[in-house]
Amino acid sequence: MINTFIEMLGHGFIQRALIVGLITGIISAIMGVSLVLKNFSMIGDGLSHVGFGAFALAVVLGFTPLYFALPIVIIAAFLMLGLSKKSSINADAMIALLSSSSLALGVVATSLSKGMTIDIYQFMFGSILTIGKTDLYATLIISAIVFIIYILNYNKIFAITFDENFSKAIGVNVDAYRMMLAIITALVIVIGMRVMGAMLISSLLLFPALSSLRLFRSFKTCLIAACIISAISIVLGISISFMASLPTGSVIVLVNLVIFIMASIIGKIKK
Length: 271
Prior knowledge:
By secondary structure, the chain is mostly helical.
């Protein structure tokens, strides 16, 4: 087993997969804790469907999927939280409206391209083992931007996560920070789609956060635990999928599921 793992690390594509997977997983876990506590869990799922529609359209039109999808998913994040507050459509309904429409657009675009191409299939279900240097650099840059924004605004994010009314009372622009959370979540979704695919990326946001919240009560401790859980699931998922020739994204989700079940059991025992 150890020899196989060492041999696996000798492959360049595995090294890139681990780097991208760990970075994406950790950034997703950090965002996931705030999203779960804010009851914004469905935003990740909705944006991933928007991302699929954008990626499919980019493939059909001949554009670079990552750069084409990025502004579209950010605009969708604005629509989900920004316009929903100013219209008669609430946030959940807006998410359902945009996600179902985007998924339908992606399917139609796929049919126009004479079936599901390899590129579109990879964006639906992930293709972490085929990550190239361009995707690696893009992931590093976008993840660094997200991490810096989060760290610089950590105190404000902490405040609005737990008490928006108190945050407003001390002069925090709650709406602006809610939008900031949605936009950096959109960035995480776009880079994560290469790892997990549109159908599974929301699991990277939710599972580590939910598992950590079963075990700890401190916000900072939950953030650290979520990052560790996400890193473990990424390494185990990639290793198992490589050794057993299984779909990587799906294996990572199943590893996260096992960890969540274990965390839930331990959490109940602790009570």
